[in-house]
Amino acid sequence: MAxxxxxxxxxxxxxxxxEQLAGRTQQTFFSxxxxxxxxxxxxxxxxxxxxxxxxxxxxxxxxxxxxxxxxMNDGHGTIVVKNPGAKHSLGVGILxxxxxxxxxxxxxxxxxxxxxxNVRIQGRVGWSCAENMMAGTVIIExxxxxxxxxxxxxxxxxxxxxxxxxxxxxxxxGTIIVGGDTGAFSxxxxxxxxxxxxxxxxxxxxxxxxxxxxxxxxEIKDLGVDAVPGEMDDVERAWLxxxxxxxxxxxxxxxxxxxxxxxxxxxxxxxxxxxxEKKIVL
Length: 282
Prior knowledge:
The chain is of the alpha/beta class. The chain has 4 helices and 11 strands.
């Protein structure tokens, strides 16, 4: 049986060497001169003062999404969707500046894959709201289901009520703000970004998180693997205060009582070999 050094030699020769992560930053800096880079080439120009509304009660999800696109292409910058009826996958894939208002609740996978719009939902949302959101703001006035903000990459995702389990799972950036409580395994495998929970957090908070920060104003049931308490400084307190004020969620007693949770960073070592490649090398 080959020794460890021999196996490493073979894997390097085959171009399948293991990699030890060292906290490399993926942050990209932009300048105002690059403003055109923030707009997609085929994004229609819209006027926020040009408002339209339509009743979605008798339309299916595809027809509702198509209607939103038609109105955007016609230059409408503010669109109100009445009676969305908790239908699934509404408002997905919008890569444009837009004020989008839903007068009612959404079902599963609402507002996913968006980059830029400001969305307000005057009701509840089902599973996986705003999954893979890139930029913009989404505000939910009531409660949200599980996997809220899964794989979030940017923007502000706000739920004024409580959210289900696995909130912010695989989160890669941006900010999730929860006015109430969050369920079990919130922040599971979180990689970047910030999560603010004004209420309580369920069990296994931050389980297997690689990076990022979680702030909790209430009680934490327990911490997950490799999630540890951190020290909060004055800069963070100022940021928390400013962020919660923006959405009228700042507690009367301020933010001094919030607990900060970060990654212990004991899970950073893993290899990049596929299972079949491991069989060859090992």
